Amino acid sequence: MLVCLLSVSKLTFGADTNQTMTKIVYRDISTNVLSNSFAAQPRTLYRMGEKYNRSEEAPDPVLGIHGLIIINEPDAWMINLMDKTGTHMVDGGPTYVVHDCIVSPSSKSQAEFQAFKASSISGFEFGKEMEFLKKHKAKKSGPLSIGGVSCDRYELTLDGYSIEMFAKNGTEIPYQLKISKGQSQISYLQYDTYRTDLQPDLSLFKPPAGIEISETRH
Question: Before 200, cis peptide (omega within 30)?
């Protein structure tokens, strides 16, 4: 199941409790995003292994949506916490792996989606940023100060995208991320929280109580 978590409108086998859980809180700080807008509000991501994923958005009072996506492969739920409704889906396989892609397809066509899945950039995921950059031999420089924080800079050009990651000096903990394609900036993200050592909490990967769940028609 491919999950693009930059928006809730876009859409990991038995629990291994020896695994640690990752929690990431990030915000879009692009210059064209107003600081008080919904687009600039923090989003929270939990992931554990290849089976479990939870993505929480801030409430959007304009659209009447408070988005929550929960994946516990092969099951997934798309929930609106504001009206307490949700939809249950079942992954048809043949593989049952969650991918938290940072870059999403430029269009919603099936051909574009399949091409994106086959590309290297689709492997650039939340929770695996530094692993991806090192695998593709990103150029490292620094340290330099970003917003008063000492950071190492990692730069990579791949599949037409330019990635610039600022990680806290000596820690490989992401702090800011810029992604561009050609002359256009795709995203500029600020990481407020980045923890990869949390104890598993399987309650996070179940729908909350009181949600009216409907089934997706096949």
Answer: no
The CATH code of domain 2-204 reads 2.50.20.10
* Gap between the Cα atoms of 87 and 78, Å rounded: 5
Q: How far is it between the farthest Cα atoms of the chain?
A: 52
Q: Which residues contact 73 (CB under 8 A, 6 or more apart)?
A: 1, 12, 13, 50, 51, 52, 91, 96, 97, 98
Q: How many C-beta neighbours within 10 Å does residue 107 have?
A: 11
Which stretches does DSSP call E strand in 29-160?
A: 43-48, 52-56, 67-72, 75-80, 85-90, 99-101, 139-146, 149-158
Residues 148-186 have pLDDT tens digits of 999 999 999 999 999 999 999 999 999 999 999 988 999
- At 109-118, the pLDDT tens digits run 888 888 888 8
Phi, psi of 15 (to 5 degrees): -70, 130
Cα(4)–Cα(171) distance, integer angstroms? 26
pLDDT digits (tens, 9 = 90+) for 89-101: 998 888 889 989 9
Domain ranges across the chain: 2-204
Residue 57: its pLDDT value, please?
Answer: 96
